[in-house]
């Protein structure tokens, strides 16, 4: 029985789904099945876009016959000659002998070699940019060599903006009644299979995919009809963006994939410990046992992650067979632009690490992180330091996430004995003032903090506390990098206004501000009224409630001057502008000739203007407006003033980030 769905009133999906196939192309497991898409256009002339695999030929022919009704089939456009799309072409031609095959020369040559057409076949051969008119539709052809075979071409309907994209934009997985990507949670439920499909089928041909994406960018594409998976009619940009990343070998996740092969569990144990150490340092990490996972999953995950650690036992003086096979498959798919590290195990002659490293020598733009870890039979205490060193080295090139808040002890820990608390005691703590800067992508940002301290000397570490409401906080949490500029006593109030009183979410704090330099980590550092600059790489983030404490290795530091560092007390006494003195209501006499002002309720009759020498008759009495009484709330920590009768309970000082409890109400 036929099973079709309409895409447009005159465009019908006539493909089929296979859920019994064990191995697609004999190598890729498809646990959720696969669809073979074919599309029938019912214009003044009828056009079938590609055929299907033999596995679904029965329903396919029923679909075509049903959708055609009593009409004949006029054209068969062949986009791709791989048999999952062309194996039924021979029978189709027998059933519809008057249909003209539309294809390029390479396709036609392959068609004959496969034996799908006879020598008498007279196709309509097309080239890049040729046009086919069918009545209300006009099609043009876009050659897409090596996406996935050399003869591949796409067809673009200039009338509706529909791109028949061949294998591109396909995915593994049967359709399950959902023809359109917007009928499912594609990014949540299907993206992994789409990535596995892309990376394994055309991952090797990134430059060729890029070439086609550049051509596609010139087309007004509204609908994409691939040969596998869903039809795209909404949010096309989301999927095209994924293709952009995959075809440029750009990692989607800045994190570590540890792929391991372990015979008796000791290599796996070392891999687990490394994963734990990475996670404890805040790195994003995942693991894969290549002995049990199909090679296609390693290819997909390796395209997804930025850092790849391979751990293998040594086997017959070589890489363990499953790891060897998986790595050669990955390398054949042109993997590049990654950071690599290796762990080897061997009871008498460990060599797998060296051999794995050698395999990647032909790959482009790979960064190897040392040390290579060598395990003899099983991991021992004395090997842990090497794993720590590797974890540290990997983390220097990774963004570090803030760990989840620690669980609050509830049972065995004795309750602390509480005494009286005096909030003003906190004001006796001394603080400095600092500009903390960071960067994500092209966005530089910074804020003022009063908390930057050295917390360890071996290794040399500093810590900064940053309020979670600050945009800078989010950037540091995501990138793991910051600079600290230590402000000096000659700092003007302007610098505090620039970095402390606005949000980087809607302002560029560095606009028209030249007193900066870029440090080795690529971040800006403020250099004006600054006596030292530190660059930090976050190794731990502690959730402290309103603030996060970022603990960081110092990766660069420089002394800029001998000027004394500014303290909070100094800032409040000498930098922070004082509130304007209260103005009293006064009566003035203003000279109408020169503007001189005489203050007083009455002016003596014989008064003479000291400037222009005119007499009382030329003065005008002016009574000043009564001064409006204002209420202010002054931050006891930094002196910031908030004007208003009431201060909101959740108010936070924009300068020092202290809350309402640290403000004092002042009637003015
Ligand atoms: Fe779906 Fe390259 O064939």
Give the ligands present. MU-OXO-diiron
| Strand runs, count | 38
Q: Please bin the fraction of helical residues.
A: 10-25%
What is the average per-residue confidence, as pLDDT, rounded to a whole number? 91
In spatial order, strands of the major sheet run: 1-2-7-8-9-10-11
Oligomer: single chain
Reported for the largest beta sheet, the result is:
7 strands, mixed
Structural summary, described in words:
The protein is an alpha+beta fold and 668 residues long. Helices cover 24% and strands 28% of the residues. It contains 15 helices and 38 strands. It has a seven-stranded mixed sheet. Strands 17, 18, 19, 20, 21, 22 and 23 form a seven-stranded mixed sheet that branches. A seven-stranded antiparallel sheet has the order 25-24-28-31-32-27-26. α5 (186-201) packs across α9 (295-304) and α6 (206-216) packs antiparallel against α7 (236-247). The radius of gyration is 36 Å and the shape is flat. The mean pLDDT is 91. The structure holds MU-OXO-diiron (FEO). MU-OXO-diiron binds next to α2.
SSE blueprint and pairings:
Layout: E1 5-8, E2 11-13, E3 16-18, E4 23-24, E5 28-29, E6 34-36, E7 39-42, E8 46-49, H1 57-68, E9 75-77, H2 83-86, H3 89-95, E10 100-103, H4 105-114, E11 124-125, E12 131-133, E13 138-143, E14 153-157, E15 162-164, H5 186-201, H6 206-216, E16 223-225, H7 236-247, E17 253-261, H8 266-280, E18 285-289, H9 295-304, E19 305-315, E20 318-319, H10 321-332, E21 339-345, H11 352-359, E22 367-368, E23 373-375, H12 381-395, E24 434-440, E25 443-449, E26 452-457, E27 460-467, H13 471-479, E28 481-487, H14 493-500, E29 516-518, E30 524-526, E31 530-543, E32 547-559, H15 568-575, E33 587-591, E34 597-599, E35 619-623, E36 631-635, E37 641-643, E38 663-667
Parallel strand pairs: 8-9, 9-10, 10-11, 15-16, 17-18, 17-19, 19-21, 21-22, 21-23
Antiparallel strand pairs: 1-2, 2-7, 3-6, 4-5, 7-8, 12-13, 13-14, 14-15, 19-20, 24-25, 24-28, 26-27, 27-32, 28-31, 29-30, 31-32, 33-34, 33-35, 36-37, 36-38
Helix pairs in contact: 5-9, 6-7, 8-12, 9-10
